[in-house]
Design goal:
Blueprint lengths: L5 E6 L19 H14 L3 E7 L29 E4 L10 H7 L4 E7 L1 H14 L3 E10 L3 E2 L6 E2 L1 H12 L5 E3 L12
Parallel strand pairs: 1-2, 1-4, 2-3, 4-5, 5-8
Antiparallel strand pairs: 6-7
Helix pairs in contact: 3-4
């Protein structure tokens, strides 16, 4: 990846999540540290960092901007000039100007991290791939929570969610990566 063509997309790393009762079951208690490492590497290598926040206006929940939680988690600070978008959909493209920004700045490679692994992060990766971006998904810099199936009450644990996400994305929508290899160019087969 070259600096002028790559961007780290930091999804929903916001104060809304620790305010949820599920936060005690988060799959990655070190998510802020892991994302901060990726942000530092992206900046060091000259890649863009784009911050995506999720808002649900008038919802009266933790994602309602009126509660003041739709802002980055402590320890994650957008630098001056870094693009910030606020979405109201599960992916970072549909309700924002993200695609226009990336096109205008010549970005073709995306590195995705954030909260939730299988929801906003995976959905953004899938949409990005459909839009023609080369996507790297850094699973270890994502986090999720157990999911209860509403119709049966069955619960899917975080390990199963993460494994399913990697299986669904790998080789179809994204390259699965570690924090240390996120900005490496994959070898040609």
């Amino acid at each position: 990846m070259t600096s002028s063509h790559s961007a780290l997309i930091v999804i929903d790393m916001q104060r809304s999540f620790p305010a949820l009762p599920e936060w005690g079951q988060v799959s990655n208690p070190d998510i802020v540290t892991d994302v901060a490492r990726l942000v530092a590497t992206a900046r060091e290598k000259g890649h863009q960092v784009v911050w995506v926040l999720h808002a649900s206006p008038n919802s009266s929940d933790e994602f309602d901007p009126a509660h003041g939680l739709v802002r980055p988690l402590d320890g994650l600070n957008p630098a001056e000039g870094e693009h910030i978008v606020t979405k109201t959909s599960r992916n970072a493209f549909t309700t924002t100007n993200l695609a226009q920004h990336l096109t205008r700045t010549g970005v073709t490679n995306l590195v995705i991290c954030g909260i939730q692994t299988e929801q906003c992060c995976e959905t953004t990766a899938r949409v990005a791939a459909d839009l023609g971006y080369h996507v790297t998904f850094v699973t270890e810099a994502t986090a999720t929570f157990p999911i209860r199936r509403p119709d049966t009450g069955a619960v899917l644990g975080t390990d199963a969610i993460i494994e399913r996400t990697e299986f669904a994305l790998a080789g179809r929508f994204a390259r699965i990566s570690t924090i240390d290899t996120a900005f490496e160019i994959p070898a040609k087969a």
